[in-house]
Amino acid sequence: MGAKQYFILFFTHPNEFRNLVNYWLWHDARDITAKKEIANSGWDRESMRTCWKFLDLTSRSFAAVIKELDGDLARTICMFYLALRGLDTIEDDMTLSDEVKQPLLRTFYQKLVEPGWTFDGSGPNEKDRQLLVEYDAVTAEMNLLKPEYRDIIVDISHKMGIGMADFAHRAAISDPSVPDYLTSVEEFDLYCHYVAGLVGEGLSRIFSASGKEAPFVAEQLTLSNSMGLLLQKTNILRDYREDVDERRYFWPKAIWGAYGFEKLEELYDPKREDEGLWALSGMTLDALRHATDALDYLVLLRNQTVFNFCAIPAVMALATLALCFMNRDVLHKNVKIRRGQAVKLIMASKNPRDVAYLFRDYARAIHAKATPRDPNFMKICVACGKIEQWAEHHYPSFVNISASSGETKTIALTDPSKDARVRIAQRNDVLEKEINLQKRFGGQAPPLGQVEKEPIPWELLLFVAGGVCVMFGLSGLFVWGAVRYF
């Protein structure tokens, strides 16, 4: 952001400007260049400094959270990211012929560990072209990773390269006059699995291999895949216009074709923008079905830096879906959440409960913008309701958890006047007491609401009276005996 953007933000969204200032002043960012971090960050090596440079150039959003990861995990994930970024750059390059692209994609996993390998054949306008030109720095550092890390990265790159090559070949052999669209939602899921779901799998395996997460995290393939699909589908939804302008078609025809469109470019036709919004709604609905799986995955994580690394992009994805939903601008330009809002989310995404509430809040924002004219209206409401249900089931909002000291926590219901569910719970307690009394006295319990006036049972009165008589009798005998003795 430039000075002008900060100036505008100060007057239009002062709270977000304050968040930016607080983050800049108080956030204790990890300095990978510090002497104490060199053993883990590899900053003393020129090749690793080049890798950190490319991480900053290729991903402003991921670079910050990657650097915050504990120990050598930051360097490992940096290398994983650059390996997959190089693969993705080749796949996205529309200037490369299929004859060149196929062997590159299918053997890229071998290039990762081939010393000195570089590639300068990318198109001049490819934004990450320079990464491949200087890829020898990546291969040099890849060979310095621990074998268990390197094997995971090579394996995931192998699987991803094959999947990308298959889809790229299908597009290459199709009729140039007829765009090669993804047809079904299942095909869309498969593509997203190759380019993002496998990333989630690789990350889970690396987290477990590092010892910072439990071994079973590596086995959560479905949840790991859903984490990747949530982020990828959100990016595909947001980047609609940019991708279409560059003749990259990722939206499945099963979704947008249902509204009478023959070509994906027709969605931004001013005369058919309403139908375009219905297609956008369908894409939002498809992305939302991965939200609860993402929440299930996050509750498994125990390391704070790993949790932050996974939670922050997930929350950003929900915020982006809420921003893009029913937003006509998505059909005409790239839409992003404001940086001040992003910083607020970074500071708020510290534990599963807060993240669940953020998911819930953005689900409510989507629900609030839904319109009954949308053919997906009911399904959108259900999808948002599932997120709300998950959050309420795991972290009931009418229960307050507060800490009065460093280790003492208090759990209490909220003020009944602020939540009807508390009054319902209290009323149920009264009814339960009434039912128990009716069972106890055979239906002769006092009227509803008068439980506190329950009569004292005669058995209890008789027991108490008998006990008093026995006590007086024993006392009298003791006094009589003492008098006789003396």
In total, the number of domains comes to: 2
* Main sheet specs: 2 strands, antiparallel
CA-CA gap between termini: 104 Å
CATH architectural designation of the largest domain: Orthogonal Bundle
* The CATH topology of the largest domain: Farnesyl Diphosphate Synthase
Strand content: under 5%
What is the highest CATH level, the class of the largest domain? Mainly Alpha
Residue share in helices?
55-70%
Order of helices and strands: HHHHHHHHHHHHHHHHHHHHEEHH
Radius of gyration: 31 Å
Low-confidence stretches: none
CATH superfamily of the largest domain: Farnesyl Diphosphate Synthase
Number of helices: 22
Number of strands: 2
Shape: elongated
Structural class: mainly alpha
Average predicted local confidence, pLDDT? 86
Query: How are the strands of the biggest sheet laid out side by side?
Result: 1-2
Helix/strand layout:
Elements: H1 3-12, H2 14-26, H3 38-41, H4 46-58, H5 60-67, H6 73-92, H7 98-111, H8 129-133, H9 136-142, H10 147-173, H11 185-209, H12 221-238, H13 240-245, H14 253-256, H15 273-288, H16 291-298, H17 304-324, H18 339-348, H19 352-369, H20 377-394, E1 399-403, E2 409-413, H21 420-440, H22 458-485
Antiparallel strand pairs: 1-2
Helix pairs in contact: 1-2, 2-18, 4-5, 4-6, 4-9, 5-17, 6-10, 6-11, 7-10, 10-11, 11-12, 12-15, 12-16, 12-17, 15-20, 17-19, 19-20
Would you mind describing this structure in some detail?
The protein starts with a helix and ends with a helix. With 486 residues, it is an all-alpha fold. Strands 1-2 form a two-stranded antiparallel sheet. It has two domains: 40-170, Farnesyl Diphosphate Synthase (Orthogonal Bundle), CATH 1.10.600; 174-398, Farnesyl Diphosphate Synthase, CATH 1.10.600. The chain has 22 helices and two strands. β1 and β2 form a beta hairpin. It has helices at residues 3-12, 14-26, 38-41, 46-58, 60-67, 73-92, 98-111, 129-133, 136-142, 147-173, 185-209, 221-238, 240-245, 253-256, 273-288, 291-298, 304-324, 339-348, 352-369, 377-394, 420-440, 458-485; strands at residues 399-403, 409-413. The chain crosses the membrane at residues 306-326, 460-483. Belongs to the phytoene/squalene synthase family. It comes from Sistotremastrum suecicum HHB10207 ss-3. Its main location: membrane.
